């Protein structure tokens, strides 16, 4: 089990008892370290730490990966989304690819449903 650090730049400044670590006499508040986190793609121990990160680096990250500068449009080509029949129970769940514009439906396997790279959308 590998431990990872919370990526919040101010994590060590949020004073909670579980952050106090170190040898007796030299204890300090430290960045949280866990086997898993729930926030921000498992990178942050709390929403506070996720927000701290965004406040510090959000603009840089958006500029790096591409800022949205014009409206995107939902069209037939990019309106596909994965869904399942909410009345069907696991393991017999019925997976469906639906088009939000044309209302077309196509069957989907569980594997395709879980595969993030499997996608019918062709437009932006
Ligand atoms: Zn944190």
Overall pLDDT metric: 93
Number of helices: 2
How can the largest sheet be summarized?
Answer: 3 strands, antiparallel
Give the % helix: 10-25%
Class derived from helix and strand content: alpha+beta
What is the beta-strand fraction? Answer: 15-25%
| Low-pLDDT segments | none
Task: List the secondary-structure elements in sequence, H or E.
Answer: EEEEHEEEH
Question: What does this entry look like structurally?
Answer:
- The structure is a single chain.
- This protein is α+β, with helices and mostly antiparallel strands.
- The protein contains two helices and seven strands.
- It has helices at 47-65, 110-114; strands spanning 4-5, 20-21, 28-29, 33-34, 80-84, 95-99, 105-108.
- The strands form three sheets. A three-stranded antiparallel sheet has the order 5-6-7. Strands 1-4 form a two-stranded antiparallel sheet.
- The longest helix has 19 residues, at 47-65.
- The structure holds zinc ion (ZN).
């Amino acid at each position: 089990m590998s431990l990872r650090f919370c990526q919040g730049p101010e994590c060590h400044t949020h004073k909670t008892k579980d952050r106090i670590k170190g040898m007796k006499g030299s204890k300090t508040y430290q960045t949280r370290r866990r086997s898993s986190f729930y926030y921000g793609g498992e990178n942050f121990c709390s929403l506070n730490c996720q927000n701290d990160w965004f406040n510090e680096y959000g603009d840089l990250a958006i500029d790096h990966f591409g800022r949205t500068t014009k409206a995107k449009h939902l069209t037939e080509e990019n309106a596909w989304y994965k869904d399942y029949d909410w009345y069907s129970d696991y393991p017999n769940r019925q997976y469906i690819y639906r088009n939000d514009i044309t209302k077309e439906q196509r069957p989907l396997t569980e594997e395709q449903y879980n595969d993030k790279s499997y996608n019918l959308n062709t437009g932006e």
